[in-house]
TrEMBL record:
Domain Oxidoreductase molybdopterin-binding residue range list: 94-232
TM annotation in the entry: none
Species of provenance: Pseudanabaena catenata USMAC16
Cited InterPro entries: OxRdtase_Mopterin-bd_dom, OxRdtase_Mopterin-bd_sf, TAT_signal
Protein name per its UniProtKB record: Molybdopterin-dependent oxidoreductase
Length: 250
């Protein structure tokens, strides 16, 4: 544990523990003795489950990548929301996912792969932001999204030191990949709320990416799997593989 020797750390251990979200922790511990819990963090490989992971920062190299981050992207007041401006943009038919049986898989180059159901996801700190969604097709919309930070999910699974990219698989077979610093940016969330209500199915229910730092096509709807990788694969993204820019930063 080298955290205490890290001279440029931004958080005290106590702050990190608060930030990690004690609700999630309590739920995790509470599940250990429960035989029939409906809401438990299920490790893909139980032998790798590590309760302490919730209290530890990400490894130093990844924290450094994240904190090289630029200024936060602008957020707007709730009064600026444009309820009808967000156009549905789906390359294929809309997949309908049963939120009760849904499980988000988080795996790859991580120490503690997990499957989370929606109760697990909702037990983590809820982040709400009003941001500008920008589609390359020439429209934009001010939208409020509510959900969980990828950063908080990363703290649960603990990416390995070599992890540099994050892949997102969707139920409509859409796929995307992000650099890890953008994926773990504090304004990058997996959203389950839009403009204060549960996300409509066309907008990506039960979980979709939302972030003010990337163009619309990076923001995968109907995300089913989040995979940390050391390298980019040949297939980088549905639109990216058609010639659109991979980084697609705003
Ligand atoms: N799974 C999936 N995610 C997707 C898309 C898609 O076709 N499938 N379209 C992308 C594009 S181009 C945009 S602009 C936004 C649109 O989000 P919305 O339909 O909620 O407005 O979703 C992005 N995420
Ligand atoms: Mo788009």
């Amino acid at each position: 544990m080298q955290f205490d020797q890290y001279p440029r750390r931004r958080f005290s251990r106590r702050q990190l523990m608060q930030y990690a979200g004690l609700s999630g922790m309590g739920l995790f511990l509470g599940s250990c003795g429960a035989s029939n819990s409906t809401s438990i963090f299920k490790p893909l490989h139980p032998q790798t489950a590590n309760v302490r992971a919730l209290f530890e920062p990400l490894n130093q190299g990844i924290e450094e990548l994240i904190f090289q981050a630029k200024n936060p992207a602008p957020e707007y007041p709730v009064s600026a929301i444009e309820p009808n401006a967000l156009l549905i943009n789906s390359f294929d038919t809309t997949p309908v996912i049963d939120p009760h049986s849904f499980k988000l898989i988080i795996d790859g180059a991580v120490n503690n792969p997990l499957q989370l159901n929606m109760n697990d996801v909702r037990s983590l700190p809820l982040i709400s932001m009003v941001i500008r969604h920008v589609c390359v097709e020439g429209w934009a919309a001010i939208v409020q999204w509510g959900g969980v930070r990828l950063y908080d999910l990363a703290k649960l699974v603990q990416p390995k030191a070599g992890a540099r990219y994050v892949y997102f698989e969707s139920a409509d077979s859409y796929y995307e990949s992000w650099d890890i610093a953008s994926a773990l940016h504090p304004q990058t969330i997996l959203a389950y709320q839009k403009n204060g209500s549960d996300i409509p199915v066309e907008n990506g229910a039960p979980l979709r990416l939302a972030s003010p730092i990337k163009l619309g096509y990076k923001q995968s709807k109907w995300v089913t799997r989040v995979t940390f990788t050391n390298e980019l694969r040949k297939r980088r993204g549905y639109w990216v593989d058609e010639g659109y820019e991979w980084f697609a930063g705003l």
